[in-house]
Each structure stands twice: as structure tokens, then as C-alpha cells.
Specification:
Structural class: mainly alpha
Largest sheet: none
Helix content: over 70%
Order of helices and strands: HHHHHHH
Number of helices: 7
Strand content: under 5%
Distance between the termini: 43 Å
Number of strands: 0
Radius of gyration: 21 Å
Length: about 170
């Protein structure tokens, strides 16, 4: 496929020629036609914002984009499930309003997105410190690295979280 004169024409051609295939490909993975249709839609929306490309294998390209969206969907659902389980274990007087629950869930999605972009060791050190309450020394021992390395990992994770917070303000 050559670079089109208009990106919308290219997307239109891709949509017309491969939408049905992509819906079926996603339906087989999800076991759900509605989610497959939604992710197909999201895949093509994502392509609308992209620069026009010469695509030699449209199905492989679409599958790659759709698979990334599928991974995001699974991560989001896993996070939502964990949040709902946490809410279910709260004492009745501690339950948040629906609006507060939605705001916390949105914040969790944003933090998860930031953390998913961090290197694995940085993310691990940050989660050990924040969720498990480990000291820097305990993290260093558990990860088999020096305390100074733990400090660097934590500083990087905090910087990313601060950047997220400042963009939200």
C-alpha cells in the first residue's frame, strides 16, 4: 500500500477492507462481540490521529494496534476489579460516594498508565515502597541492588508521578 494523498482516504480503505476481519479477530480473543466492535472502533480512531504510512501488511498493522488496545483494556479491567474488591471490604461507614469512587478509579488508571511506562525495576521499587511499605534498605536487599540504586529508582518514579500531578492541575 502506498502513501495516500489523503490520510482519511487511507483509513476509509482500511476500514472498508479490514473492519470485518478485525472485529472477528478481536471477538475470538475476547469472546464478546460488543467489546470486539468497541475495540475495532477504537483501533480506527487511533489511526485517524496517526501520520499516513505505507502499510505493506494492513492486517498485521491493525492487529498490532488492536492488540495494544486489548492489553490496555485488560489492564483497566484488572485495576477496576481490584478497586471494586477493595471497596467491598471497606466498612459501611467508610464507603465513598459514587462520584468519589469514579474519581479515585480515574486517578488509579492515570497512575497505572505512568507506572506502565517505567522500567520494570523502577516500577517494582516504587510499588514495594508505596504498597508494601518496605524501607529503601529492604527494597535493596529484596532486589539485590544497592540502596543508592533504590533511591534513583524511587526518585524517577516520583518524578513521573509529580509530572502527572502537574499536568492534571
Amino acid at each position: 500500500m502506498s502513501v495516500p494523498t489523503s490520510p482519511h482516504q487511507n483509513i476509509g480503505d482500511l476500514y472498508r477492507d479490514h473492519r470485518g476481519w478485525l472485529v472477528e479477530w478481536l471477538r475470538q480473543r475476547l469472546g464478546n462481540s460488543a467489546d470486539a466492535a468497541d475495540l475495532t472502533h477504537d483501533t480506527f480512531i487511533r489511526l485517524l490521529g496517526a501520520k499516513p504510512l505505507a502499510i505493506d501488511s494492513p492486517r498485521a498493522y491493525l492487529a498490532t494496534v488492536a492488540n495494544r488496545l486489548l492489553i490496555s483494556l485488560y489492564r483497566r479491567r484488572s485495576l477496576e476489579k481490584s478497586w471494586l474488591e477493595t471497596l467491598a471490604h471497606l466498612p459501611e461507614q467508610s464507603v465513598l460516594s459514587l462520584e468519589s469512587q469514579a474519581l479515585v478509579l480515574e486517578a488509579l488508571h492515570e497512575v497505572d498508565q505512568v507506572l506502565s511506562c517505567l522500567p520494570a525495576r523502577t516500577r517494582q521499587a516504587f510499588l514495594m515502597a508505596q504498597l508494601e511499605g518496605y524501607t529503601q534498605e529492604e527494597i535493596a536487599h529484596h532486589m539485590g541492588i544497592h540502596v543508592r540504586s533504590v533511591q534513583r529508582h524511587l526518585a524517577r518514579a516520583y518524578e513521573e508521578c509529580i509530572m502527572l500531578a502537574t499536568t492534571q492541575s
